[in-house]
Amino acid sequence: MTLPPQQQDVPGTEQALNPKADHGEESYRGSGRLTGKKAVITGADSGIGKAVAIAYAREGADVLISYLEEHEDARDTEKWVTDAGRKAVLVPGDVADPAHCRKIIDTAVSELGGIDILVNNAAFQMTHEDLTEISDEEWDRTIATNLSAFFHLVKAALPHLKPGASIIGSSSVNSDAPSPTLLPYAATKAAIANMTASLAQLLGEKGIRANSVAPGPVWTPLIPSTMPAEHVKEFGGNTPLGRPGQPAELAPVYVLLASDEASYISGARVAVTGGRPIL
Prior knowledge:
The chain is α/β, with parallel strands linked by helices. The chain is 36% helix and 13% strand.
């Protein structure tokens, strides 16, 4: 599969993607697997986070939609959640700020009435062929957005999580097979997998589960906004399935890990990579 070469400004938008991504808007069918649950999802305006928000709502969960800045993507996610008959709460802001992470959790508690599911999904990356191109500011931003936010969100949420609660981190195939041109991003994704495994052991006695999902190449606004156009053109072509995944193809795994059906799954890292193995 060859994608049209394209570029967007960071953080990118769904409206500008060509072709459009599939978030399960027309295909996902819920079956009550998350009825009555309250979910917080970061980076839920687009990409994987959007697909997860739609799926969670159709499975019966109310959803807090955390996203970086105001644009149509977040409102579209809100529409799909409310169309499913569930409550949607929008919280714009930068998860790189620890205070904003605490605001997200406080808002979920006050507006949703609690937290049963925490999905740390927001991420930042940039492509560089040379290490010297990576500025101190970019390194710090990547760590703060992808990794430190996970810590601050979990720490703030923990007093509100009850037995049966689920924490899910978005890792990556890069956690095992790091791309040299995505050095800071790959390092954070390995750390997310490691941190999630620690959380599973640390929180098990409280009845709280922690798992991570390791996506391969997935077609989201992050790709054309952080990669050169020539890389976008061939994106996902190196997988055994020969194409990038769609966000809708990730959502069922996030549903499983959030559901009571996964009551004995903790400390796992689930690969959704189009055939590329992880260790």
